[in-house]
Amino acid sequence: MNDVIIVKGSGGLGRRTESQDGISGLLCNGLPVEGGVQLNTLYLLSSVDDALSLQITPNYDLNNGILVYEHISEFFRMNPNGTLYLMITDIDSSYRALIEESCKKFLRRAQGKIKRVGVVWNPRTPESVMPFEAAGSDQIQAIMAAQTLYLLEFAAHRPVFFILEGKNYSPTSTPYNIRGLNAEGVMVMVGQSIVTANKHQQYASYAAVGTALGARSAAAVNVKHSWVDKFNCYGGSLTVAGINGQKIEEISDAVQDAIDEAGAQFFRTHTGISGYYFNSTATATSATSDYAYAENVETMNKAARLVRASLLPYLESPQKIDPKTGKLSTEVVKQFETIGKRGLEEMLRNDEVSGINVYVDPDQNLLATSQLEVQIEIIPTGSASKIIAKLGFKNPF
Known about the structure:
Elements lengths: L22 E8 L12 E3 L2 H6 L4 H7 L4 H10 L4 E8 L4 H15 L6 E5 L17 H18 L5 E5 L20 E4 L1 E3 H4 L11 H10 L22 E3 L2 E2 L5 H9 L5 E4 L2 E6 L15 H18 L18 H20 L3 E7 L6 H4 L5 E6 L17
Parallel strand pairs: 1-3, 1-4, 4-5, 5-6
Antiparallel strand pairs: 2-3, 7-8, 8-9, 10-11, 12-13
Helix pairs in contact: 3-7, 4-5, 9-10
């Protein structure tokens, strides 16, 4: 019969599945609480209230001379909508053991959901913290262990980024060169709240990992958390910023520049605007590396996850071969180029990359190798790390 048919559409509102990019992890050593937080147990926190329900409170920190609540509260201050996995391990864990033993278990238990993890080391006594720059210091050992785990997790299809606590980092004109460690998967935080550092002798050399972790989780993968318009860190416990007990206002511009060039992460001020801001997003590798900044690593990590998800259903699938040449058929080439592009369309749509190029070489001998190679190039977004305004007078005569 004649009729007017109404076909109900879907997807026109542009609603998307909630992004999982902000899911983070915090690993600390600490103490269990009867009826509250237990050691080596995975907890999922959506707010500071979840930490309080585990009896992780300001007094938990102060009475034990450790910092756990501080980092959790700072994480959620910087990203109120964040999701944080938490695990606390034995108080006597060394910094290196936190990475090599506990962090490996932590990431596996979270089943690849954690995109970045902050690691906090609470030593028993302040005297046990060697200077950062000392040969074989706990901090350097931890950075190298984190880089090894970063590579292992990437190979296991669980790419993750590390933010480590750079305790006892000396703010001098010749600071330790963190970029020389060639640890592209690691960012080292040395900035701190002087207010927090002065609360307990154990806190003197701590670094504000929770603040950095929260800011990084609130940023899109391609965005610098040092973006001045978006990431003013002033507030909460951070009302006076510094490095290893020295107020940032008392550290000369020349020394701050040297620390920045060395690849350390800290809080800085900008003339003409109030607040505290991150100096950079440097990773512990060469400034000429493709992965010299946190957003480079996180962009690639997300791309790797998406590309694998799009290609995985085709693993072990039969593919047609051109019967005359033995090479890949045109149909197969086009199919996999489309699949490769489709996997990264989300990032293109979200302006997390500038462009994508996908190419499948038809000359591959799939019959001989059973291996199909898809070449994918990502054109990243840029960042205005320096803005040069050329200003001068002009006589209109």
